[in-house]
Structure formats: structure tokens, C-alpha cells
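Hi R.,

As promised on Friday, here is the backbone we talked about, encoded as C-alpha cells. Could you run it through your design pipeline when you get a chance and send me back a sequence?
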């Protein structure tokens, strides 16, 4: 771990109107050592260890002088833990007759599949299944898929030219299976089959969820999970070579369609004549309650309005042993951001440090399962989100390399970016700000707030070789720079809590 010749306690004086705030490096180390300890067993959602972590966070926020929200330090929500049950089936009728496919070998439902039965539905190939008006690309244009099963290619067009649509370094949101399912539903499809893109021209893979009933050796800890009030979806299946041959005649034929789409950025969608599909998906459901942690420091003159400082406190639990270690401690991901929340609450707790608006500290569970905690929080907020003026999210801020800090949200929140740059320049050790992570924007909890048109900033020091591995340990956290980032985020939150409402621009509805 990199050590910097800072005193253990840092008093920070920045802009003239900001009060002094105290950040204790030794306290930060203590919080990290508890949250990322083996005893917390990777803070999986849901698990007893996640609940223990929540109790720890609530107590520390209480100790910092934070108040409960609506009488509680917890925002509870429910999850549905899913498993595949019987009957679950897939069959195709074509000119060659009826073919019944084998679950696990020929198809596997995805973790967020819907239940239901489809009988003798017509089949429509819709390329990658993308409707992107901002990119002038719509693979559903001119097609009627109401009552049909749509077949889509996984991912998005492979484009090497960075100036063209889909030519960025990382996939757009349209590559997401969730976005494709919602698009299919909007167009009236009754089921969706997803095929491997076969970018190398090899055999397509079946890559659905790791259902405990299909893979009992994996146990039930990692059941697919959805929010308890999730809207019913449509059956969504990963399918392999047998299905492709039945529908397209050969894998080569489908591969050729993919190449045409990629090379021309032109849809090659079509009705697959002479074929119908029947399928059924049945699920077992177990209801589980989980918690976000929340606490409030009331503002001085406008306490009804508030700024959220957030970080997810869950990680990915326990896995197969690697050199004797099976616990994914998640020191950087995201005990670092959660520790920052506790430090910020302590720094702002003195009366003289309070901003005009209130500060709401929220530690989210379920982020690693698909932003579930922040979605539940913003869908069923304990306070009116019309009064939320900004959200600052801290996710993986413990591996600062060469003082670089990546900032997300610059495309949408120019006012917050300006504040951030001003406060960074006033730091004793300014960070090197980079605006290079917009492709990560939908992968962390600020996205749930952005969807509600709330200005956001996202602090992130980047992926590394220990990401989602048992080697994400406390010893590798760059603690001084982590505290420096915490100072910056706290000051930006303080500024946002005392200035006119910031702008939120360019965010497309439905993203």
C-alpha cells in the first residue's frame, strides 16, 4: 500500500465559504478493516453478513450524529430469489417437423426471464434487437412482431471506426439484455431468444443463468434475483447451435447476417417463414427482505431539500477457493466508497460544518446484483425526490494510480463538474481528473438517480486485476488518496447543498 507523509488527521480548508472539515486516516483504516474482513464473507446480497454490515454502518452513522429518516436508519425492500422449475421447455416446428430442445444443453433461461407459456408463435429475426433513434438505427422498423418470438444476437454491432455508431471503446447501453427485453416488450413480442454472436465464426454458446436446479454444485447462494415488485417480463432464453440450425439452416447463415449488419450498420431483420416456436418457463420464488442504510444530517436553512452521498456496501460473497482463499473481501469494491460515506458524515456532523440543505447518506445493497438497492430506493423513496438536488456516488475509490480520479456524469451535469473542478484545484494535493468512464455510467448506483432526472457525479479510480477476485484486499488500498477523494466528494456535496439547483442536461428518457 502506498503511504503518503500525511498526518493521520487531516484538517482541510478550501474555498473561503467552506468550513474546516476533519478526515481521519486511522478511522478510515478501521472502517475498511471491518467492512472488508473475512468475517463479513464478501457482503453478498442477501446474506447474514450483509445484514451485519448494515448494522455496523447504521451504528457508525448514528455515532456521527446523523438522524434516522422517518424514524429508521434502514430502507427495507424485498427481493425475489429465483430458481428454474418444471415445466420449462422449448420446441420448434419447421418444414423438417417438430424438434424438442433440451434445457441446459440447447437452451437456458436468463436470470431475469419472465414466466409464461407461448404456443406456436411465429418467429422474427431482429438482428441485435436494437432501437436507437439517437444513432439512426432501428432493427424493428417496418416489422410487426406482436405475438411473435424475436431472435436477437447478443451484444451490439462490432464497429472498429470510433467515429461511427457503436464504435466506442466500450458497449453502449443498447448491448444490455435488459434494454433489449424491454424493447421487445414495447414492440409486442411474447418471448426473446438470444444467440451468441460467434465473432470468431466458432460454435455458438449457451450462456444463460446459473440456475441451482441445473447446476446444484453451485448451491443456492447465487440464485438469480429480481426486485420484489419487478414488472412481469417475457420468457428470455439463451439458445445454442441446435436452435440456430433449426431456424436459419446453419450457423454460417446466421454468421453471415451478423457480418452484414456489422459492416453496413444496416438492419437485416426478417420474418423466419415456415417456423413456429412454443416455449414455457416456470420459476420457483423465495421472498427475502434486505436493507439499504440511510441517515440524515439536517440542513441549516433549507432542510426539506437534500443532497445524497451514496455508495454500495455489498460485494459478491464467497466463491471457489483460489490458493486457499474463497472470500471476495471487496476492499476497493466497495468498502472504499462505503468508508468514504462514514468519513463524510463525521466531517459534516459539527454544527458549524452543516450546509443549508440536508445531507442524506445512503449505503446501497444489491448493487452487484443489478443496482437493485438504488432502484428500490428511487422507486420507493423515503423522501420526496423532487427535493433531491444532487447525488454523489462513490464506487471503487481505493486504487488511485498516479493521483488519477475518473469522473462520471460530465455529459449530463456541467454545473456539478464545475464545482468539482474548483474544489479539486483547492485541495492540498489536487487529483488528476479524467472524464473517461461514461461507458460505466449505467453500471453503478448513480444511474438510478439519473433516470429520475437528478444531477449526479460518479467517482471511480478504475478497474484493476483484482476486480471481483479474492485478491481485492485491504493491503492494496491506497488509503491516503482514498481519503483525499473523500475530501473532494464531501466538499462538492457541501457546495451543491448551498447553491441554486444545478442543471441536468442531455439525458435521454428511458436510459
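Update: got your reply. Pasting your designed sequence below so it's all in one thread:
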Amino acid at each position: 500500500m502506498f503511504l503518503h507523509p500525511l498526518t493521520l488527521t487531516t484538517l482541510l480548508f478550501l474555498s473561503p465559504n467552506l468550513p474546516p472539515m476533519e478526515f481521519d486516516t486511522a478511522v478510515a483504516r478501521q472502517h475498511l478493516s471491518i467492512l472488508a474482513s473475512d468475517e463479513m464473507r464478501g457482503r453478498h446480497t442477501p446474506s447474514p453478513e450483509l445484514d451485519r454490515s448494515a448494522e455496523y454502518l447504521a451504528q457508525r452513522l448514528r455515532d456521527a450524529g446523523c438522524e434516522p429518516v422517518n424514524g429508521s436508519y434502514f430502507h427495507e425492500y424485498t427481493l425475489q430469489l429465483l430458481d428454474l422449475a418444471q415445466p420449462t421447455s422449448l420446441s420448434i416446428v419447421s418444414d423438417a417437423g417438430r424438434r424438442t430442445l433440451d434445457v441446459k444443453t440447447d437452451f437456458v433461461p436468463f436470470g431475469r426471464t419472465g414466466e409464461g407459456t407461448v404456443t406456436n408463435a411465429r418467429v422474427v429475426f431482429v438482428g441485435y434487437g436494437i432501437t436507437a433513434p439517437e444513432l439512426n438505427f432501428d432493427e424493428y422498423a417496418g416489422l410487426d412482431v406482436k405475438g411473435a418470438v424475436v431472435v436477437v444476437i447478443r451484444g451490439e454491432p462490432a464497429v472498429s471506426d470510433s467515429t461511427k455508431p457503436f464504435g466506442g471503446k466500450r458497449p453502449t447501453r443498447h448491448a444490455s439484455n435488459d434494454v433489449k427485453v424491454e424493447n421487445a416488450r414495447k414492440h409486442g413480442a411474447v418471448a426473446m431468444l438470444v444467440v451468441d454472436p460467434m465473432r470468431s465464426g466458432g460454435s455458438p454458446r449457451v450462456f444463460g443463468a446459473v440456475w441451482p436446479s441445473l447446476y446444484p454444485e453451485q448451491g443456492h447462494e447465487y440464485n438469480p434475483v429480481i426486485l420484489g415488485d419487478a414488472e412481469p417480463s417475457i420468457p428470455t432464453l439463451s439458445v445454442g447451435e441446435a436452435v440456430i440450425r433449426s431456424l436459419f439452416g446453419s450457423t454460417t447463415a446466421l454468421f453471415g447476417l451478423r457480418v452484414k449488419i456489422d459492416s453496413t450498420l444496416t438492419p437485416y431483420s426478417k420474418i423466419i417463414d415456415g417456423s413456429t416456436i412454443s416455449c414455457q418457463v416456470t420459476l420457483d420464488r423465495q421472498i427475502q427482505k434486505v436493507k439499504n442504510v440511510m441517515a440524515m444530517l439536517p440542513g441549516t436553512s433549507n432542510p426539506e431539500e437534500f443532497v445524497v452521498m451514496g455508495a454500495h456496501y455489498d460485494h459478491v460473497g464467497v466463491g471457489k477457493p483460489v490458493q486457499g482463499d474463497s472470500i471476495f473481501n471487496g476492499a476497493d469494491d466497495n468498502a472504499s466508497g462505503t468508508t468514504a460515506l462514514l468519513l463524510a458524515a463525521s466531517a459534516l456532523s459539527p454544527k458549524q460544518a452543516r450546509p443549508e440543505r440536508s445531507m442524506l447518506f445512503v449505503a446501497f445493497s444489491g448493487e452487484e446484483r443489478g443496482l437493485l438497492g438504488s432502484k428500490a430506493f428511487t422507486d420507493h423513496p423515503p423522501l420526496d425526490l423532487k427535493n433531491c438536488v444532487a447525488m454523489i456516488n462513490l464506487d471503487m475509490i481505493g486504487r488511485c494510480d498516479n493521483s488519477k480520479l475518473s469522473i462520471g456524469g460530465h455529459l449530463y451535469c456541467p454545473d456539478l463538474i464545475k464545482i468539482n473542478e474548483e474544489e479539486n484545484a483547492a485541495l492540498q494535493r489536487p487529483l488528476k481528473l479524467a472524464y473517461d468512464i461514461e461507458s460505466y455510467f449505467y453500471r453503478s448506483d448513480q444511474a438510478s438517480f439519473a433516470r429520475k432526472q437528478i444531477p449526479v457525479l460518479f467517482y471511480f479510480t478504475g478497474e484493476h486485476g483484482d476486480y471481483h477476485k479474492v485478491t481485492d484486499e485491504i493491503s492494496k488500498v491506497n488509503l491516503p488518496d482514498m481519503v483525499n477523494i473523500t475530501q473532494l466528494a464531501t466538499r462538492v456535496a457541501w457546495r451543491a447543498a448551498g447553491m441554486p439547483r444545478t442543471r441536468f442536461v442531455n439525458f435521454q428518457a428511458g436510459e
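One thing I noticed while checking it: The CA atoms of residues 221 and 500 lie 46 Å apart.

Thanks again,
M.
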